[in-house]
Amino acid sequence: MLSAFGRAFRTPDLRRKLLFTIGIIVLYRVGSFIPTPGVDYPNVQQCIAETAGSNDLLGLINLFSGGALLQLSIFALGIMPYITASIIVQLLRVVIPHFEALHKEGQSGQAKLTQYTRYLTIALAILQSTTVITTARNGFLFQGCSVPVIPDDSFVTLSIMVITMTAGTGLIMWLGELISERGIGNGMSLLIFTSIAASFPTALWSIAGGENGFVKFALVIGVILLVILLVVFVEQSQRRIPVQYAKRMVGRKMYGGSSTYIPIKINMSGVIPVIFASSILAIPGLLAQFGDETSEWVVWVSRYLAPQDAGLHIALYVLMIIFFAFFYTAITFNPDEVADNMKKYGGFIPGIRAGRPTAEYLDYVISRITTAGSIYLAVVALIPTLVLIALDVETNIPFGGSSIIIVVGVGLETVKQINSQLQQRHYEGFLR
User: Fold this and answer.
1) What is the helix (H) or strand (E) element at residue 253, kind and residue range?
2) Per residue in 2-52, pLDDT tens?
3) Domains in the chain, please, with CATH?
4) pTM (2 decimals)?
């Protein structure tokens, strides 16, 4: 990987793209520390030191914003509104026929869906910024903090804060698209990668500074490396279903007769099931913080559901990951559509009749691969948390399975793109 980056920097065109990408990432990180107008920055730092962010749902958003949420910066919402909007638009394809028709129209339809995603991102940014500012003003963002983070809570000040955070989300969306167009890799994925990776040094330092810190630090690093090896192995694995295209005459020319395959990844749903499961399980704990501490349901949630080491929490976490893995795969991969396209262009799977039998065979393969993929996701999501619990280390640090899957997946995809660009400019490897 390092050799690929070295050769890329020796290529002028790729060097410009890499420097442009690095510049955008630096700009994104700088924006994460610029406070929103109306926020008392010293008080925010004091509250962070006193409370360390106890809410799991806000902690998840803070992770994807690179720590900007708890800083109440102009980039406080991070990339989460765009991620949520993208997922919602994908889910609406199942519900709204117009969205599915746009998806099948090709480039023009995809451009229209992208425009809908942008509009929805801004709407979600307004909603989320209002929620974050409300929780900060009411003291729920930093519970137990002795100083106010928003001294002036007038309507004008709060409105400016909402507008600023929403504009920050729009700017992040634009920066991600700039990376995709003029830089290297997928812009949104790289910004998420940057946000998560930025939290690692602080988390590692917190482990090393405690009791028996260096022993725990070494064990945590060892577990992370093993999980990374597992993630790389599974993410690179795929089931290749062979496809044969029949020969056909068009005028005086013979077309077809080629062999190819359908690559099916073991983990087709990516990290989406883990994010969904984490977000949903964090909601009861968030609601319990707004309730009466002496209420029976608040006590039950705080004791049996909210803690990450609770048996019920772990069981529901695994079941929800498996459910969302099947649900999201069913949305993104349609066996009937693939079988129809193969039949239209004269393709068939050897030994399987075209049409309905092909769709049933693809559904059979997808069901079994998704079973293995969902179990893999559940294991990767639980291993870091269980190890941190066993070592008596705080579990609100960014070493969850979702973080490792995202970081490794984005890293692999970026290196692939760099290698492909290098192969387009250097042909020695093909001639040797």
Assistant:
1) strand 253-255
2) 666 677 777 788 888 888 999 999 999 888 888 888 888 888 887 777 665
3) 1-198 (1.10.3370.10), 200-397 (1.10.3370.10)
4) 0.78
